[in-house]
Amino acid sequence: MRYTVSMLALVGLAAPAIAQDRPVLDVYTYDSFTSEWGPGPAIEAAFEETCDCDLRFTGLGDAAELLSRVQIEGPRTEADVVVGLDTNLMAKAREAGLFTTAELTSPEFDLPLDWTDDTFVPFDWGYFAFVHREGFTPPANFRELAESDASILIQDPRSSTPGLGLLLWVKTAYGDEAPAIWEGLSDNIVTVTQGWSEAYGLFLEGEADMVLSYTTSPAYHLIAEEDSGFAAAPFDEGHYLQIEVAAAVASSDQPRLAQDFLRFLLSDTVQSTLVTTNWMYPAILPGDGLPDGFETLITPDRALTLDPEDVPAMTETALAEWRAALAR
Amino acid sequence: MARGARPLTVAGLGSAALVAALVLGTVIAVFARAEGAGALGPADWAAIRFTLWQAALSSALSVALAIPVARALARRRFLGRGLLITLLGAPFILPVIVAVLGLLMVFGRAGWVNDALGAVGLPSVAIYGVQGVILGHVFFNLPLAVRLILQGWLSVPAERFRLAASLGMGAGAIFRTIEAPMLRAVLPGVALVIFLVCTSSFAVALTLGGGPRATTVELAIYQAFRFDFDLGRAALLAVVQLAVTLAAGALALSVAVPSALGAGLDRVVRRWDRAPGWPDALAIALAAAFLLVPLAALVTRGAPSLLSLPPVVWAAAGRSLAVAVASAALCLVLTLPLAVAIHRTGRRAGRGLEVAGMLGIAASPLVIGTGLFIVTFPFVAPGAIALAVTGLVNAVMAMPFALRALGPAVAEVERDWSRLAQSLGMGGWARLRLVLLPRLRRPLGFAGGLAAALSMGDLGVVTLFADGQSATLPLQLFRLMGAYRMDDAAGAALLLLGLSLALFWLFDRGGRVNA
Question: Architecture of domain A126-241+299-326 in CATH?
């Protein structure tokens, strides 16, 4: 169609001219990483100062959509590095066979567990938790929550990273009793949203007592909004751990730059940027420590985790139980 | 009848072919890329059942509630009527999450209704659950139903009502002889469109449905892509969705009968019959309250941060406006010839074309987007065509609505004027310019406005192609929410609401100049 063609032409003209002389490093990540308010812009500026290259971020939905996109593109992908998968997606990502070994010189990670994987590089991490406003007395664990009349907002495990985190949290904490926990929770759940944003938005509008988010969420309100009115509820069965990872793409035409970028992700510059833009804990504590305000956050005694390779099978079981319990 | 070269009919066949190629071709592309054919599990069948019955109920309720409102608007003249009609259209063109937030500010647990109930000591009402899904769908689709049925009322030539008045017919007799036949012709199509809108919407069901009970086919498609990366199952579900559309379409079109009122003098309706005013006033007041109070809630929530929105939001707004206008133009260019072709090719072939025009509504944006992605990725960078693809897909998705608005009007003009045009030897451009376009201004303006506004609020395909540099306003709104910036997001939502409405009003107004 004529209109389509002229629209294409318009878009082509509007696209920024790409510097031809410097190599381009293509980094795929999830959308909020590269948005104006995420860590992307600062990381891009800092890396380009040292690399003599053009770092190009492509923001794609959330972590799972990011992986789907790389899978659709396959070995023909433009991506040199993928940033923003997590421990729950690692098995699927590995199975896709698109990533190559990270050449790091045995970094000292500050993670709640020992990191041995040599393909996926952890760059930040956090615990899932229910967040509530000050003045609300939260239950101490899932059983208490199920028995209470506290209302909660959660995300669908099939469309949301925290939603999947909650599913596996309950499953690792309760095993075969997980279906009973979900049945008990069903009358506490106000609604199940597609993603984190909707649930958190509804929570801030006052639709529920608690929302599934991260232990670090109150830090955002405290540091960015100077509002100390939020807290995360410590659960005594422990909190499920999410570790975000990056990996170099095997088919990359810039393998050296890709490796440089993975190392750069672990530098003090990036690590301290991530804390207050991604609102997660740094994978390697920067020299000047955590910003003021983080000391007010809860620190779970127990980190609940799954071997990444067990996640797909566990998810399948847990999802069937979740669906059966909530469909009643 | 003499049949010369008929460029419009040929163009209409072309646009039907384009839609079919886009909708079916993308499904085939997804199938081709899938490993294995895919199979539907019990959860998928539950999703199909839920989708069908909630869509049927939502559609029936929307249409039933819309009839008295459209009737009231058709026969009353009052100050601000035009503005009210434009505002009433707002929910339909809002991005889903924005509208849902507006609804929740009014009907939610901490909403105005429950605050009021609590203040007088009454128990609160729960919106989440099946009732919420239906409420949400009626909120979205009542305005569309009102507008489409109102078009039907306005298309009745004034002479009928004058004749009825001179024969001393009362409101009841007018309803039986003039309005009921019109409704019989218009309602099946309206119900079909809304049924299909409800089958393919998924964020309403997800947010207001309260859990996995409320899983729709579109949601199952999304999960197949995103969660399982099972392209075969996604494509299979898309085929199920298309099959439902075709079946529903065939059913609705076989029920619809063309109105047999004959030709009139091509004038705006004036009414001489006098019915008591209060039922009309009540219908209008209730609809206005239901549809406008949530919008008012959005305005009060978003207004404080509207002027302090970051520049990137304004840039995104500009991009969205450009896409919306291009998309609306493309939609009209595709739909008008299709509407003409449907009328001219006779009953059987015309129905086939009509169903082709409806495909856009049944197509899963995700499947179209993914299919286009698979087809174009080897040749172009996705980010470079993000806006063009968004415009194209939005145009095709808006076609069913445009066709609803244009179809009856085209048929009317063709029936009433084609003999005169033939006898004057008018054909091609002259006929389009002198006969069709002047008489189609109103539905063209309405259809263009609808297409522009729908495109403005769309957050489907763009997410698959956008690379972060070419974000549209809805995408930027989502980013604000994702960065905890709910106040700015509320401001952006208000901006989106304002721009969508303004676009719709401009097109619609353009269509009603002189009227």
Answer: 3-Layer(aba) Sandwich (3.40)
